């Protein structure tokens, strides 16, 4: 725990002293509240050991695991216990868990909440896995009522089912065709529905992985009206653009999709304005064969981007090009994700906070080599990119992480 923040040359009684190199800065360990680890059940996609090792190498000291893609999904207390048993003793960083909200488990949310999940995730469209079905508008209203009664948090994959069912069906190698199959209107419509129902219930809600800039006025207006709403975006929406994606390059497929450069510029502006609150990875890996590199078919490929280890370098590379300071990046990637999850001792370097740090060299450049990344499969859309900013060491609770499983399992109600 941080017991003092002193002048640079002040004496201290510390038993270990770390002296930063002239090109290094000390920042709080990042907090990533949107990570798909997939264990148990789909550990061949990703697992706690590999995901948390990648997190540590990227300066992330705390992450919260999503409730789907594992089998069983985290939709009741028994499944949460299974998830915790799978993670016990395997994590290089601290790990917490989201619960899931699906049509069948409204009655189970109270027990899940009492067992320490940090909130509940739902989909308003097909999640991609049969064991985690989406909510209808009526089901969403019921979940929001329960979330409000618990004073909990609902985090929402907001794309409208009807809009996407009316869009062209994605198939083949054309990225433009895939983009047309997930129009911005689908996000806008779903967010409008969510905000309307949240306003009636008084529930606290969070919009996941926002990619549509045209939804920003809706979120800004809801905040101005006093709704308890927040929003996140992800490195791939802030650093990649549709114009740069060649046909057949399915490593870029994600849902919602990567949109235009103009759209990306608006997302950056919304971060600076506070309309978007934070940046998280949405690390959603899979085995290489599920990306269908053999055909390059966007309709058949799994949607998800693997970037857990690269997020800080990606955002810093592009933030500095836009004249934004490192303090903004730290706020978006450490302080505000911690606030979202209610982790009051994470994301800042202040007296009483966890001694979680990253030693960061903001001017050092490197070239991304997917094979050298620590997540399970050597697949990333950033292969070959030159980025600026290197994490030289990561510290958890005052100890340097050297890929050892020293992380704790976190609970909203305490470890």
Largest beta sheet: strand ordering: 5-6-7-8-9-10
Helicity, as a percent range:
25-40%
Total number of strands: 13
Low-confidence stretches: none
Q: H/E order of the elements?
A: EEHEHEEHEHEHHHEHEHHEHHEEE
Ends: how far apart? 15 Å
Shape: globular
How would you state the average pLDDT, rounded? 97
What does this structure look like?
- It is a single chain.
- The protein has helices at residues 48-57, 77-87, 109-114, 137-150, 161-166, 175-181, 184-201, 216-224, 235-239, 261-273, 311-321, 326-341, and strands at residues 25-28, 30-35, 60-65, 94-97, 99-100, 120-123, 153-157, 204-207, 229-233, 278-279, 357-367, 386-396, 399-400.
- It is α/β, with parallel strands linked by helices and 415 residues long.
- The strands form three sheets. Strands 5-6-7-8-9-10 form a six-stranded parallel sheet.
- Helix 4 (137-150) packs across helix 7 (184-201).
- The chain starts with 24 loop residues before the first strand and ends in a 15-residue tail after the last strand.
- 52% of the residues are buried.
- The mean pLDDT is 97.
